[in-house]
Amino acid sequence: MPAKAGHQRHHFRLDPSAITSLMMVALFLIPVLAGLTSVIGSAFNYLPALGFHTFALNPWRALLTTAGLPHMLMLTVCSAVFSTLFSLLIALGVVSALWGTRQWYTLQRWLSPLMAVPHVALAFGVMFVLMPSGLLPRLLAPALGWQSPPPWQTVQDSYGISLILLLVLKETPFLIFMTAAATAQLPVANTLRLGTSLGFQPAMVWLKLIWPQLYPMIRLPVYAVLAFAMSVVDVALVLGPANPPTFAVQILHWIQDSDPNHSLCAAAGSVLLLLLMVMVIGCFHLTHITARYLTKNWLTNGQRGHFGAQWLWLAKTTWRGLLILFFTSGGALLTWSFVWRWRFPSLWPDWSWQSWGRAWGDLGDPIGNSLLIGVVSALMATVAAVLLLESNQRQNNTAIERQLSLMTGAAMYLPLLLPQVTFLFGVQVLLLRWQLEGQLLSVTGLHFLFVLPYCYLSLSGPWQRYDQRHSIQGLLLTQSPWRTFVLVKLGVLWQPLLASFALGFAVSVSQYLPTLLAGAGRIETVTTAAVGLTSGGNRRLIGVYGLIQMILPFLGYALAFFLSHWTFAQGRMIRRLNS
Amino acid sequence: MSLILSEITIGLNGQLLVQDFSCQIEDGAVLSIVGRSGCGKSSLLNMICGTLSSSFNCSGRIILNDNDITDLPPHQRRVGLQFQDHLLFPHMTVGENLAFALPRQYQKSDRAQWVEQALADCGLTGFAERNPAHLSGGQTARISLMRTLLSQPKALLLDEPFARLDATLRDSFRRFVFAQVDALGIPAVIVTHDEQDIPDKSRVIELGQAQ
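Predict the joint structure of the above. Result:
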């Protein structure tokens, strides 16, 4: 009888999955690479949309003669490197200190809502706590005898300390989240049991045995944090130094300048920022390799640890401090949104609804746009992430297919690793050329680019852990592949799917630069409106906008929770579909 | 009426796991397949039910009740499979797990009756609204088997179905399974490591030796 393997071909089709995967990745990467190409062209004086048709080095000459350039670059690198290092150390410390305890499970439950809070809203909150007339100086005033705000620059300080603090506050939960996902793939409990049975302190087991395995697994998220910190614009506008600002903020100023020569300078600056970032990430990588080499002897020197308890205490205490700052910032936003008058050093303001009444008339469009763009981009991204994960899962048979699957995963990190301002400027130039600037569709499409990686990464864990035998059982119970996929696989993964949608919505709500550049000032979301208020300095209105910006992502999570409960907790959806 | 396996050959990465395996299992009969780990027992079951990964090379024909099902997709083969983990869908209640398996043409009221009857047959009346996570190992195993049987399979494959159960449960569940197979009169194939799992009068084939 001739060899016959045809009966599998019905269910494990390779080519369509590979094609779907490739097409999705291509669709996703085209705008990113087109943006990059466009910005590189502009950096060399080629910007036909603004009448520059010849290649030249003028933009670079203009850039390199900019006053304060070294200071701006130093500020950018230092704030990014320090905030990333602090966040990483705190995240690893917290994971090491709390792993396996009851607090660990509580922490994991609260990480998503912590991450969902938009950067800008948190930046406003931190500003209201730290500024000279903020909550913290008011608390200290009675003890220190202050009758007026201290003459210190506690926010927008020239060293970028408040910016670093905000980045640490926002990125630590993300790194804890990624580290927690990585620990799930390691035999942590057994390693701890083995290490402590050999006489090592638990902290030392983490340092010597688990961290060396853990760090390579969270390397890409660490680089993403580093890239974000180097290119962040919105929070740098709120908390970062103003004169000179960080380099990304300076690029944005150039982009928004009416002088077309400044647009070329912005393009050259964007390319320089990209090069700087590649260099810093390269340094991080080299440092890791060097540290691995230098700690070889330390790993086997038999030292079982003396400082473990203190180290864990420090990590836990810092984390608690960050949490206190987080919740105080939320409280400060809420308070300021209802303030009428608040004299220093009083702790109790005069209350009023006036700010809400004043803002309410202008809030309709920003809220509507945020909701519409957020829901559509999150939905699209969740569906696209499912398609990509499904096609990846179906093509794990040959080396080429596995490579393709790895490539998809790596491609998802590209928008997170590239400086937003770099390729978004290029995308803006293209949108301008195709007359797509200032349209809801363009803004939603750009949001999709940033939302998809988060949806993909948040779903990839549950997708990998899904027991394929459920689907096999579904098929063998004579349900069609489609019904099995919908009723069994999506049913089992329903909660992660809803969580992914909520996360995507939160990511979309917090997007500033994509909305600003693709919207061309015509599409206003809560985030762009809030950042726009910074220059005006009306704290009451900032409080209102910041609070709404903080609440919107929670609406996404509330919707996800409600849907999850309504559809599956009581088995209602299954009953409906089965009846 | 029977399950016929004809000249089944399964290979992986150039290595032959099963070579020219042929046999016929009559209705109500049980074929027991034993053999060392990695000899292709589970692969053979996967090939019969159509879920063998495409990374395997396979050939041969599978005939069920005079119909060649070799090229049919899994959901059209009418072959039930019991895993050793007795996986119940975690997002459905016990009743919903059972209702899921019923053919679609059944009316809503009939479905409820079938579910109740199945629960009664396995001694778990009143368990319809229970969450599968709250069942014991034996209860899960019985529900899982009833679910497979409710899909009205024409053949039953058992992949070490008793391996995860303790000695007491194992014995009672074994009797329960073979009583069901006998009552339905369908061909069954059991893959096992344990000789005690082999029912009386069962034909035994040791894979890797008696092909």
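Chain A has two domains: 13-56+354-579, 69-352.
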